[in-house]
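pinned: reference chain
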Amino acid sequence: MNPRGFWEPLQEHYDKLLAAAALAALLGCLVYLQYLVGVERIKFARFKERMDEMKPEHPQAEAVELAVYAAAKVRLEEPPQIEPWTNALLFVPETRVWCVDCKRPIPLRARTCPFCKAEQPLEREDDPERDEDRDGMKDVWELAQGLNPHDPADAAVDSDGDGFLNIEEFRYGTNPRAAEDHPPVTAKLSVKEIKAHPFKFLFKSVLTMPDGSKKFAVNAQGDRETFFLKMGDAIGGFVVEAFEPRLEEVETRAGNLRRDRSVLRIRQGEKVIPLVLGEAVPHTEHTATLLSRVDGSEFAVKPGDGFEIRGERFAVISVDMRKQVVVIERAVDGKRLELGKLPQMDTGASGE
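pinned: its C-alpha coordinates
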Protein backbone atom coordinates (compact mmCIF):
# COMPACT_ATOMS: atom_id res chain seq x y z
CA MET A 1 0.00 0.00 0.00
CA ASN A 2 1.34 3.38 -0.97
CA PRO A 3 1.17 5.80 2.06
CA ARG A 4 1.27 8.72 -0.30
CA GLY A 5 -1.93 7.53 -1.89
CA PHE A 6 -3.60 7.53 1.54
CA TRP A 7 -2.73 11.14 2.42
CA GLU A 8 -3.43 12.71 -0.94
CA PRO A 9 -7.26 12.66 -0.58
CA LEU A 10 -6.92 14.12 2.92
CA GLN A 11 -4.71 16.93 1.67
CA GLU A 12 -7.13 17.72 -1.12
CA HIS A 13 -10.23 17.81 1.13
CA TYR A 14 -8.82 18.94 4.52
CA ASP A 15 -11.01 22.05 4.55
CA LYS A 16 -14.13 19.97 4.19
CA LEU A 17 -12.98 17.68 6.96
CA LEU A 18 -12.38 20.66 9.27
CA ALA A 19 -15.79 22.09 8.44
CA ALA A 20 -17.40 18.75 9.19
CA ALA A 21 -15.57 18.53 12.52
CA ALA A 22 -16.64 22.08 13.48
CA LEU A 23 -20.24 21.30 12.54
CA ALA A 24 -20.15 18.17 14.64
CA ALA A 25 -18.78 20.13 17.62
CA LEU A 26 -21.51 22.76 17.21
CA LEU A 27 -24.20 20.11 17.13
CA GLY A 28 -22.72 18.57 20.25
CA CYS A 29 -22.83 21.92 22.03
CA LEU A 30 -26.45 22.44 21.03
CA VAL A 31 -27.37 19.02 22.35
CA TYR A 32 -25.57 19.72 25.64
CA LEU A 33 -27.23 23.13 25.94
CA GLN A 34 -30.64 21.56 25.41
CA TYR A 35 -29.80 19.10 28.15
CA LEU A 36 -28.86 21.90 30.59
CA VAL A 37 -32.07 23.80 29.80
CA GLY A 38 -34.06 20.73 30.61
CA VAL A 39 -32.24 20.25 33.91
CA GLU A 40 -32.90 23.87 34.92
CA ARG A 41 -36.58 23.54 34.07
CA ILE A 42 -36.82 20.49 36.28
CA LYS A 43 -35.09 22.32 39.17
CA PHE A 44 -37.38 25.34 38.79
CA ALA A 45 -40.49 23.13 38.75
CA ARG A 46 -39.38 21.41 41.97
CA PHE A 47 -38.64 24.77 43.61
CA LYS A 48 -42.07 26.08 42.63
CA GLU A 49 -43.70 22.98 44.09
CA ARG A 50 -41.90 23.51 47.42
CA MET A 51 -42.89 27.18 47.49
CA ASP A 52 -46.53 26.31 46.80
CA GLU A 53 -46.47 23.81 49.67
CA MET A 54 -45.34 26.52 52.16
CA LYS A 55 -48.14 28.17 54.14
CA PRO A 56 -47.77 31.57 55.97
CA GLU A 57 -48.00 31.39 59.75
CA HIS A 58 -50.09 34.59 59.78
CA PRO A 59 -51.90 34.90 56.44
CA GLN A 60 -53.43 38.25 57.34
CA ALA A 61 -51.45 40.65 59.59
CA GLU A 62 -53.51 42.98 61.72
CA ALA A 63 -52.68 46.70 61.87
CA VAL A 64 -50.92 47.85 65.04
CA GLU A 65 -53.18 49.79 67.35
CA LEU A 66 -51.34 53.03 68.28
CA ALA A 67 -53.87 54.33 70.77
CA VAL A 68 -52.35 52.42 73.71
CA TYR A 69 -48.84 53.63 72.83
CA ALA A 70 -50.02 57.23 72.46
CA ALA A 71 -51.77 57.15 75.83
CA ALA A 72 -48.66 55.76 77.54
CA LYS A 73 -46.52 58.45 75.93
CA VAL A 74 -48.86 61.16 77.20
CA ARG A 75 -48.70 59.73 80.74
CA LEU A 76 -44.89 59.74 80.61
CA GLU A 77 -44.69 63.33 79.39
CA GLU A 78 -47.44 64.64 81.66
CA PRO A 79 -47.69 62.40 84.73
CA PRO A 80 -50.83 62.83 86.81
CA GLN A 81 -50.44 65.39 89.58
CA ILE A 82 -51.68 64.99 93.11
CA GLU A 83 -53.60 68.06 94.10
CA PRO A 84 -52.22 69.74 97.25
CA TRP A 85 -55.60 69.62 98.98
CA THR A 86 -56.09 65.83 98.52
CA ASN A 87 -55.95 63.94 101.83
CA ALA A 88 -52.61 65.24 103.15
CA LEU A 89 -52.66 62.60 105.90
CA LEU A 90 -52.21 59.73 103.44
CA PHE A 91 -50.21 61.28 100.60
CA VAL A 92 -47.08 63.47 100.68
CA PRO A 93 -46.99 65.63 97.52
CA GLU A 94 -43.78 66.14 95.55
CA THR A 95 -41.95 69.46 95.63
CA ARG A 96 -43.69 71.86 93.28
CA VAL A 97 -43.59 75.48 92.20
CA TRP A 98 -46.19 77.88 90.82
CA CYS A 99 -46.56 78.11 87.05
CA VAL A 100 -45.48 81.55 85.86
CA ASP A 101 -48.69 81.84 83.81
CA CYS A 102 -51.64 79.94 85.25
CA LYS A 103 -50.25 79.82 88.85
CA ARG A 104 -51.05 76.14 89.27
CA PRO A 105 -48.59 73.86 91.11
CA ILE A 106 -46.21 72.08 88.73
CA PRO A 107 -43.12 69.85 89.20
CA LEU A 108 -39.95 71.67 90.20
CA ARG A 109 -38.05 70.63 87.03
CA ALA A 110 -40.92 71.10 84.58
CA ARG A 111 -39.90 72.90 81.38
CA THR A 112 -43.53 73.54 80.40
CA CYS A 113 -46.66 73.72 82.49
CA PRO A 114 -48.71 70.47 82.14
CA PHE A 115 -51.89 72.54 82.40
CA CYS A 116 -51.44 75.68 80.28
CA LYS A 117 -48.29 74.57 78.34
CA ALA A 118 -46.47 77.82 79.23
CA GLU A 119 -42.65 77.75 79.11
CA GLN A 120 -41.04 77.89 82.56
CA PRO A 121 -37.77 79.70 83.42
CA LEU A 122 -34.65 77.58 83.87
CA GLU A 123 -33.21 76.82 87.27
CA ARG A 124 -29.79 78.39 87.87
CA GLU A 125 -28.00 75.03 87.79
CA ASP A 126 -29.62 74.21 84.44
CA ASP A 127 -28.66 77.53 82.83
CA PRO A 128 -26.03 76.92 80.07
CA GLU A 129 -24.69 80.46 80.65
CA ARG A 130 -24.14 79.96 84.36
CA ASP A 131 -20.66 80.69 85.76
CA GLU A 132 -20.82 79.98 89.48
CA ASP A 133 -17.18 80.80 90.30
CA ARG A 134 -17.02 83.79 87.89
CA ASP A 135 -13.79 82.60 86.29
CA GLY A 136 -14.98 83.31 82.73
CA MET A 137 -15.67 79.63 81.92
CA LYS A 138 -19.23 78.30 81.77
CA ASP A 139 -20.10 75.66 84.36
CA VAL A 140 -21.46 73.30 81.69
CA TRP A 141 -18.12 73.43 79.84
CA GLU A 142 -16.08 72.99 83.03
CA LEU A 143 -18.06 69.90 84.04
CA ALA A 144 -17.70 68.41 80.54
CA GLN A 145 -13.90 68.94 80.66
CA GLY A 146 -13.45 67.56 84.17
CA LEU A 147 -12.79 70.96 85.79
CA ASN A 148 -14.21 72.35 89.02
CA PRO A 149 -17.02 74.87 88.38
CA HIS A 150 -16.62 76.13 91.96
CA ASP A 151 -12.87 76.87 91.79
CA PRO A 152 -11.91 80.08 89.94
CA ALA A 153 -8.20 79.21 90.17
CA ASP A 154 -8.46 76.49 87.50
CA ALA A 155 -8.93 79.16 84.81
CA ALA A 156 -5.24 80.06 85.15
CA VAL A 157 -4.04 76.44 84.96
CA ASP A 158 -2.54 74.77 81.88
CA SER A 159 -4.06 71.31 82.33
CA ASP A 160 -2.46 69.66 79.28
CA GLY A 161 0.88 71.51 79.24
CA ASP A 162 0.46 72.90 75.70
CA GLY A 163 1.26 76.48 76.72
CA PHE A 164 -2.37 77.65 76.81
CA LEU A 165 -4.40 78.25 79.97
CA ASN A 166 -7.80 76.66 80.50
CA ILE A 167 -9.52 80.03 80.06
CA GLU A 168 -7.76 80.44 76.69
CA GLU A 169 -8.80 76.93 75.62
CA PHE A 170 -12.39 77.80 76.58
CA ARG A 171 -12.38 81.00 74.50
CA TYR A 172 -11.12 79.16 71.41
CA GLY A 173 -13.27 76.05 71.92
CA THR A 174 -10.33 73.63 72.19
CA ASN A 175 -9.78 70.68 74.52
CA PRO A 176 -7.91 71.63 77.73
CA ARG A 177 -7.08 67.96 78.32
CA ALA A 178 -5.43 67.28 74.92
CA ALA A 179 -2.09 68.96 74.16
CA GLU A 180 -2.49 68.43 70.41
CA ASP A 181 -5.78 70.39 70.40
CA HIS A 182 -4.94 73.99 71.24
CA PRO A 183 -5.65 77.57 70.03
CA PRO A 184 -3.57 78.89 67.11
CA VAL A 185 0.00 79.76 68.10
CA THR A 186 -0.54 83.30 66.79
CA ALA A 187 -3.14 83.82 69.53
CA LYS A 188 -0.23 84.35 71.95
CA LEU A 189 2.14 86.07 69.52
CA SER A 190 2.60 89.82 69.99
CA VAL A 191 5.01 92.65 69.26
CA LYS A 192 7.51 93.27 72.04
CA GLU A 193 9.24 96.27 70.45
CA ILE A 194 10.04 97.92 67.12
CA LYS A 195 13.33 99.71 66.51
CA ALA A 196 14.42 102.05 63.73
CA HIS A 197 17.89 101.65 62.17
CA PRO A 198 19.32 104.35 59.85
CA PHE A 199 20.62 102.98 56.56
CA LYS A 200 24.30 102.26 57.11
CA PHE A 201 25.82 102.17 53.60
CA LEU A 202 27.50 105.22 52.02
CA PHE A 203 28.67 105.33 48.37
CA LYS A 204 32.19 106.85 48.55
CA SER A 205 33.84 106.60 45.13
CA VAL A 206 34.18 104.84 41.76
CA LEU A 207 37.40 103.20 40.61
CA THR A 208 38.09 102.33 36.97
CA MET A 209 40.27 99.23 36.68
CA PRO A 210 42.92 98.66 33.95
CA ASP A 211 40.58 96.33 32.09
CA GLY A 212 37.90 99.04 31.95
CA SER A 213 35.67 97.52 34.62
CA LYS A 214 34.57 99.54 37.62
CA LYS A 215 34.70 98.98 41.33
CA PHE A 216 32.63 100.91 43.81
CA ALA A 217 33.84 101.93 47.25
CA VAL A 218 31.02 101.53 49.77
CA ASN A 219 31.49 102.40 53.41
CA ALA A 220 29.47 100.86 56.22
CA GLN A 221 28.63 103.82 58.43
CA GLY A 222 29.75 103.24 61.98
CA ASP A 223 32.40 100.79 60.72
CA ARG A 224 35.84 101.81 59.57
CA GLU A 225 35.98 99.21 56.82
CA THR A 226 35.35 100.17 53.20
CA PHE A 227 34.16 97.52 50.73
CA PHE A 228 35.22 97.55 47.08
CA LEU A 229 32.45 95.97 45.08
CA LYS A 230 31.76 95.14 41.47
CA MET A 231 28.48 94.43 39.70
CA GLY A 232 26.69 91.47 41.27
CA ASP A 233 28.60 91.56 44.57
CA ALA A 234 26.62 91.38 47.82
CA ILE A 235 26.90 93.46 50.96
CA GLY A 236 24.69 93.27 54.03
CA GLY A 237 21.96 91.37 52.22
CA PHE A 238 21.97 93.79 49.25
CA VAL A 239 23.29 93.08 45.75
CA VAL A 240 24.94 95.69 43.52
CA GLU A 241 22.53 95.92 40.59
CA ALA A 242 23.28 99.00 38.46
CA PHE A 243 25.49 102.07 38.13
CA GLU A 244 24.41 105.34 36.53
CA PRO A 245 27.14 107.98 35.97
CA ARG A 246 25.69 111.44 36.39
CA LEU A 247 27.20 114.96 36.35
CA GLU A 248 25.24 118.01 37.47
CA GLU A 249 26.05 121.70 37.27
CA VAL A 250 26.06 123.54 40.58
CA GLU A 251 26.03 127.32 40.88
CA THR A 252 28.69 128.74 43.20
CA ARG A 253 30.22 132.19 43.78
CA ALA A 254 33.11 131.15 41.57
CA GLY A 255 30.72 130.20 38.81
CA ASN A 256 29.08 127.01 37.64
CA LEU A 257 30.84 123.81 38.66
CA ARG A 258 30.23 120.25 37.51
CA ARG A 259 29.53 117.92 40.39
CA ASP A 260 29.62 114.12 40.28
CA ARG A 261 26.26 112.77 41.46
CA SER A 262 26.55 109.25 40.10
CA VAL A 263 24.06 106.71 41.45
CA LEU A 264 24.76 103.13 42.54
CA ARG A 265 21.63 101.00 42.89
CA ILE A 266 21.53 98.06 45.28
CA ARG A 267 18.68 95.56 45.61
CA GLN A 268 17.29 93.37 48.38
CA GLY A 269 14.38 91.30 47.09
CA GLU A 270 11.88 93.76 45.63
CA LYS A 271 13.43 96.73 47.44
CA VAL A 272 15.84 98.89 45.39
CA ILE A 273 17.79 101.69 47.10
CA PRO A 274 19.72 104.34 45.12
CA LEU A 275 23.05 105.39 46.66
CA VAL A 276 24.13 108.87 45.50
CA LEU A 277 27.87 109.42 45.51
CA GLY A 278 28.97 111.02 48.78
CA GLU A 279 25.46 111.44 50.22
CA ALA A 280 23.83 109.65 53.14
CA VAL A 281 20.70 107.73 52.25
CA PRO A 282 17.48 109.08 53.86
CA HIS A 283 16.20 105.55 54.41
CA THR A 284 15.42 103.93 57.74
CA GLU A 285 14.98 100.21 58.32
CA HIS A 286 12.72 98.85 61.03
CA THR A 287 13.21 95.62 62.93
CA ALA A 288 10.63 94.13 65.25
CA THR A 289 10.97 91.74 68.16
CA LEU A 290 8.07 89.29 68.33
CA LEU A 291 7.28 87.52 71.59
CA SER A 292 5.59 84.12 71.73
CA ARG A 293 3.91 83.77 75.10
CA VAL A 294 3.43 80.05 74.47
CA ASP A 295 7.05 79.26 75.34
CA GLY A 296 8.63 82.70 75.86
CA SER A 297 10.66 82.60 72.64
CA GLU A 298 11.52 85.83 70.80
CA PHE A 299 12.09 86.54 67.09
CA ALA A 300 13.96 89.56 65.71
CA VAL A 301 12.49 90.10 62.23
CA LYS A 302 12.26 92.65 59.44
CA PRO A 303 10.17 92.72 56.23
CA GLY A 304 10.95 89.72 54.05
CA ASP A 305 12.15 87.52 56.91
CA GLY A 306 10.60 84.18 57.79
CA PHE A 307 10.27 82.40 61.13
CA GLU A 308 8.73 79.22 62.54
CA ILE A 309 6.69 78.44 65.67
CA ARG A 310 5.89 74.83 66.55
CA GLY A 311 6.32 73.70 62.97
CA GLU A 312 4.22 76.53 61.46
CA ARG A 313 5.98 78.82 59.00
CA PHE A 314 5.31 82.56 58.79
CA ALA A 315 6.66 85.39 56.63
CA VAL A 316 6.98 89.03 57.72
CA ILE A 317 5.12 91.30 55.28
CA SER A 318 5.52 94.73 56.87
CA VAL A 319 6.66 96.54 60.02
CA ASP A 320 4.81 99.77 60.87
CA MET A 321 6.78 101.90 63.32
CA ARG A 322 4.03 104.51 63.72
CA LYS A 323 1.22 102.05 64.48
CA GLN A 324 3.53 99.61 66.28
CA VAL A 325 2.07 96.82 64.15
CA VAL A 326 3.65 93.88 62.31
CA VAL A 327 1.81 92.07 59.50
CA ILE A 328 2.72 88.42 58.98
CA GLU A 329 1.52 85.79 56.51
CA ARG A 330 0.83 82.17 57.39
CA ALA A 331 2.55 79.86 54.91
CA VAL A 332 0.02 77.02 55.06
CA ASP A 333 -2.93 79.08 53.76
CA GLY A 334 -1.55 82.53 52.89
CA LYS A 335 -3.71 84.22 55.54
CA ARG A 336 -2.35 87.55 56.76
CA LEU A 337 -2.47 88.40 60.45
CA GLU A 338 -1.87 91.72 62.20
CA LEU A 339 0.14 91.62 65.42
CA GLY A 340 0.18 94.47 67.91
CA LYS A 341 1.78 95.16 71.24
CA LEU A 342 -1.33 94.19 73.18
CA PRO A 343 -1.77 90.46 73.81
CA GLN A 344 -3.93 89.05 71.03
CA MET A 345 -5.80 86.75 73.42
CA ASP A 346 -7.12 89.73 75.38
CA THR A 347 -8.42 91.52 72.31
CA GLY A 348 -10.50 88.67 70.95
CA ALA A 349 -9.67 85.94 68.46
CA SER A 350 -7.95 88.12 65.86
CA GLY A 351 -4.92 85.84 65.85
CA GLU A 352 -6.71 82.86 64.33
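why pinned: Residues 14-53 form the longest helix (40 residues). The two ends are 105 Å apart (CA to CA).
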